[in-house]
Design goal:
This protein has four helices and no strands. Helix content is 46%, strand content 0%. The protein has one domain. The longest helix is centred in the middle third of the chain and has 14 residues. The chain is mainly alpha-helical and 72 residues long.
Length: 72
């Protein structure tokens, strides 16, 4: 349904590298859990019939706890 590009700190902390890859300047580091949360919130806000969500145990813990919504 959707996707988010995960950029590790080695990328987000290197402006020249990001410019070379044409990554917009406003893109900042977001954890995989934060990205997953945004994807789930986007899906829930859509008209799609959603019955369940699966996640890797690492990201699932952040989803269950509410995590940060600063990226959504």
């Amino acid at each position: 349904m959707d996707w988010e590009l995960y950029l590790p700190r080695s990328w987000t902390g290197d402006p020249d590298r990001c410019r070379g890859a044409r990554i917009p300047e406003d893109v900042r580091l977001a954890t995989k859990g934060e990205l997953a949360r945004c994807l789930v919130l986007g899906a829930l806000a859509s008209a799609l019939p959603i019955a369940w969500v699966t996640a890797h145990s690492t990201y699932g813990q952040e989803l269950r706890s509410g995590g940060s919504s600063r990226w959504c």
